[in-house]
Amino acid sequence: MPRIHVMVVVGARPQFVKCAPLIKEILVRRREMDLSIVHSGQHYDSEMSEVFFRELMIPKPSLNLHAGSGSHAAQTATIMKRLEAPMLKLEPDVVLVPGDTNTTLAASLTAAKIGIPVAHLEAGMRSGDTTMPEEINRRLTDHCSAILLAPTKTAVRNLKKEGLGKATRLTGDTMVETLRAVMPVVQRRERDILAGLGLQADNYALVTLHRPSNVDNLSRLRKIQLALHKAAKRLRVVFPVHPRTRSRLRGLKSGATSTEGGVTYMSPQGYIETMSLLRNASCLVTDSGGMQKESFLLHVPCITLRSTTEWPETLTGKANQLLIQPEMIHAKILTTAFDHTLKNNIRRLRNPFGDGHSSERIANILEETF
What we know:
- This protein is α/β, with parallel strands linked by helices.
- The chain has 15 helices and 14 strands.
- The protein has 2 domains: about 5-175 and about 355-370, 3-Layer(aba) Sandwich (Rossmann fold), CATH 3.40.50; about 185-345, Rossmann fold.
- It is about 45% helix and about 15% strand.
- Helix 5 links the parallel strand 5 and strand 6 (about 145-150).
- The longest helix has 23 residues, at about 175-195.
């Protein structure tokens, strides 16, 4: 059998998490496959990049494009310009792109325009909100991909509606595998992580925010912050602050960790720390797509500060509740955190994200196709 060269292009925290088990599958079990890992540099600081490579045991990238930050157009264009020459030189048989970031779109467009087939990992997800850059990225990526690796039956249906059924393969979600792989480490370390922050299991809310709709509108962000402080009068709130969010929040101290009015602000955490905090939280407040899934898989009630979600499966049984009004956040946190019936019901929900063998299926698909 001829060898297959797979180029994986990543650039942001969720992409590292999604690709880790597939990279391991290729490197450890697929001797007939060669692998190149390209890091766009979209997330370029240690807190959002290097720590995830270490914790998820992802090999050092073959190439880092150092694209950095910038507007959506500038960042996408920079990645495309810096990626074209390496693609032409390395001549991969397929370029695999995960998720829905600017890196995803830039890599898929670059490959498609020079005639290299694209495989989209996590294809077919749709929020229906075209004001979100991620929705534009995922739609365009799907329509220029040769193989669409759909994580759920909902994703398959979405792709069939758009006339992409022939290229679609149902694989399950690789994040199930990532969570299973790190869980022994999480269980060993979570007690110390909580103790270091003075936390008790099931006695705090975890918050993550980074989307422009929540953090770039300073009036809205201030209302969210006030709601969190109001909720913190009855329940501890832990808030690892994304770099773009920290610069916009008022009144934060310069230290890496500080507690103000019952809200503990801290620097972004690695994957082990984040999953330890999530697994033991009373509830999650987020605008992240990936953390909606992770909270569902860990049976933690989720409040998503958005009007839509690309993961409608998580809305089953109120495991995930969409909320857009800042003035309702504090009440929603408290009712959700103390609703033990809700938590018991979430534990009984069926997992729609697959059986934990997605990477094996994806590698088989790549072998059969290319």
